[in-house]
From TrEMBL:
<dbReference type="InterPro" id="IPR036291">
    <property type="entry name" value="NAD(P)-bd_dom_sf"/>
</dbReference>
<dbReference type="InterPro" id="IPR006140">
    <property type="entry name" value="D-isomer_DH_NAD-bd"/>
</dbReference>
<dbReference type="InterPro" id="IPR006139">
    <property type="entry name" value="D-isomer_2_OHA_DH_cat_dom"/>
</dbReference>
<keyword id="KW-0520">NAD</keyword>
<protein>
    <submittedName>
        <fullName>C-terminal binding protein</fullName>
    </submittedName>
</protein>
<keyword id="KW-0560">Oxidoreductase</keyword>
<feature type="domain" description="D-isomer specific 2-hydroxyacid dehydrogenase NAD-binding">
    <location>
        <begin position="115"/>
        <end position="290"/>
    </location>
</feature>
<comment type="similarity">
    <text>Belongs to the D-isomer specific 2-hydroxyacid dehydrogenase family.</text>
</comment>
<dbReference type="InterPro" id="IPR043322">
    <property type="entry name" value="CtBP"/>
</dbReference>
<dbReference type="Pfam" id="PF00389">
    <property type="entry name" value="2-Hacid_dh"/>
</dbReference>
<dbReference type="InterPro" id="IPR050418">
    <property type="entry name" value="D-iso_2-hydroxyacid_DH_PdxB"/>
</dbReference>
<dbReference type="GO" id="GO:0016491">
    <property type="term" value="F:oxidoreductase activity"/>
</dbReference>
<dbReference type="InterPro" id="IPR029753">
    <property type="entry name" value="D-isomer_DH_CS"/>
</dbReference>
<feature type="domain" description="D-isomer specific 2-hydroxyacid dehydrogenase catalytic">
    <location>
        <begin position="24"/>
        <end position="322"/>
    </location>
</feature>
<dbReference type="Pfam" id="PF02826">
    <property type="entry name" value="2-Hacid_dh_C"/>
</dbReference>
């Protein structure tokens, strides 16, 4: 009987996690013969550095079609919900299964969205900046509003948006949502009043962006869209940075109508130190951390690894993005 072929697993961008013990142990316990290693590279560089691999694991690294060709991989496992850094269409054409972790951080992101909204709504950035400079005056942040007098709007209404809406509703917000891919009934069932895109812009005191990055959404929120938002509105973005045109956002903060912004994602991550959004008293920026809790970190590592293993075995599970590519 011939020995079983060793499965070569390459983990990209190792700085995504503090160590790889969880991933390594799961692969070694689930598959009989495994070679597990880590190589810090991303994008086209994968083609020249990785050589052949059966499974590529990534948290932040992008995986273009040329990397798939060069490595002859069968599975690309992404430790995240979004897969916009992976050419899924090219992967499907090549029979490469792409996996993600769909539900590991819905509650964390929902909490983060509402936390950012309340921080801006209650003027915390302006108060913090003023008191740091020696001031002690409630007028340093105006207008300060309450949830009970405000409308909370969602652009796209998936699981994370619904987690935020449950919390926003409990705080007293009036909740509305727009999602062109859902029926009005589905939006109502999720706890929000369905509205058109124009109404969403016109009515939202807080507007949360929850859409994936696509050709339709990239740069959608630009100067023209911001100009249609209500006076003193607050923008929250925990989805993808490139949905927002940052120059347009800065202009809308400086000249109106926006009052503030809570951003967990930026167009370029990590941002340059010169990014003007980092120095504003009307903006809260967090380092793409809305997903994070100790529990979510454990879930994403374990589920992400098990989903990649299932795809290697040609098993259809929730987390295989392109099941048509399964062997």
């Amino acid at each position: 009987m011939s020995p079983q072929r060793t499965v070569r697993v390459v983990h990209l961008d190792p700085d995504g996690f503090a160590d790889l013990s969880v991933e390594r142990e799961l692969f070694e316990s689930e598959l009989d013969a495994v070679s597990f290693e880590t190589i810090d590279c991303s994008g086209p560089a994968i083609s020249t550095r990785v050589e052949e691999a059966d499974v590529l694991l990534t948290h932040y690294a992008t995986v273009p079609a040329e990397a798939m060709n060069a490595t002859d991989c069968s599975v690309i496992g992404r430790y995240a919900t979004g897969v916009d850094g992976i050419d899924v269409e090219a992967a499907t054409e090549r029979g490469v299964a792409v996996t993600n972790v769909p539900t590991y951080c819905d509650e964390e992101v929902g909490e983060h969205i509402v936390t950012l909204a309340l921080a801006i709504l209650r003027g915390l950035p302006a108060y913090t900046a003023a008191t740091r400079e020696g001031a002690w005056d409630w007028r340093d942040a105006t207008p300060v509003r309450t949830a009970a007098d405000s409308t909370f709007g969602c652009f796209a209404f998936g699981r994370k948006a619904r987690a935020a809406v449950r919390r926003a509703d409990a705080l007293g917000f009036d909740v509305i949502a727009h999602d062109p891919y859902l029926s009005d009934e589905e939006i109502r069932d999720g706890g929000a009043t369905p509205v058109s895109f124009d109404d969403l812009l016109a009515r939202s005191d807080v507007l949360s962006l929850n859409a994936p990055l696509t050709d339709e959404t990239e740069g959608l929120f630009d100067a023209e869209v911001f100009a249609r938002m209500r006076e003193d509105a607050i923008l929250i973005n925990t989805s993808r940075g490139r949905i927002v045109d940052e120059e347009g956002l800065i202009d809308a903060l400086e000249t109106g109508p926006l009052y503030g912004a809570g951003l967990d994602v930026l167009a370029s991550e990590p941002p340059r130190e010169t990014n003007p959004l980092l120095d504003r008293d009307d903006v809260v920026v967090t380092p793409h951390a809305a997903w994070y809790s100790d529990g979510a970190l454990d879930r994403v590592r374990r589920r992400g690894t098990l989903n990649a293993i299932a795809a290697w075995r040609s098993e259809t599970v929730d987390g295989v993005v392109n099941p048509a590519a399964l062997r």
